[in-house]
Amino acid sequence: MTRPLKFLAFATVVGLALATAATAGSTRAASPMRITVDIFAAGNGESTQPANIAVRAGGTVQVTFRNHTHMFHTFTIKALGLSVLIRPAHGNGVRTTSVSFVAPYGVYEWHCVLCATATHPHTHTMRGKVYAILNE
Ligand SMILES: [Cu+2]
């Protein structure tokens, strides 16, 4: 291969790599990270599975709650000013509630502000941690 042809081939490969990287970057920013959390009745309280989640730091995260209980709950992260009402299921069904948020790098406590209040007779409060530690 002559020298100009070698350079052209090299430039083409670099150009393709840059175009691929740019596409991957824009795709990542456009699509939120999706996580599903189930809420079940468990004894005299509720069980959240999973209670602790690891999410993308600085990117949009969508958490979908599948509430299998007949109680209202909230997903509240005081440090982020975030509080979302999770509606109760009907009959033997399940009701889903989705929330999207962006958490800067860090570890955040979440809890339900309704559990363990007069609204709920239960003594156990739904709570967990959000680890905003992932790069992708
Ligand atoms: Cu609750």
Low-confidence parts lasting 5 or more residues at pLDDT below 50?
A: 10-27
Architecture (CATH level 2) name of the largest domain:
Sandwich
Task: Characterize the overall form.
Answer: globular
List the secondary-structure elements in sequence, H or E.
HEEEEEEEEE
**Share of helical residues:** 10-25%
Output the strand order for the largest sheet. Answer: 2-1-4-7
Quickly count the helices. 1
What kind of sheet is the major sheet? 4 strands, mixed
Q: What is the element layout, followed by pairings?
A:
Blueprint: H1 3-30, E1 33-42, E2 45-49, E3 53-56, E4 60-67, E5 73-77, E6 82-86, E7 95-102, E8 106-111, E9 127-134
Parallel strand pairs: 1-4, 3-9
Antiparallel strand pairs: 1-2, 4-7, 5-6, 8-9
The structure holds copper (II) ion.
What's this model, at a glance?
The protein is of the alpha/beta class.
What does the model show?
There is one protein chain. This protein folds into two domains: 1-31; 32-134, Cupredoxins -  blue copper proteins (Immunoglobulin-like, Sandwich). It is 21% helix and 43% strand. Mean pLDDT is 83; it is low at 10-27. The longest helix has 28 residues, at 3-30. Strand 1 and strand 2 form a beta hairpin. The radius of gyration is 22 Å and the shape is globular. With 136 residues, it is of the alpha/beta class. The relative contact order is 0.20. Copper (II) ion is lined by residues 73, 112, 114-115, 120, 126. Copper (II) ion (CU) binds next to loops.
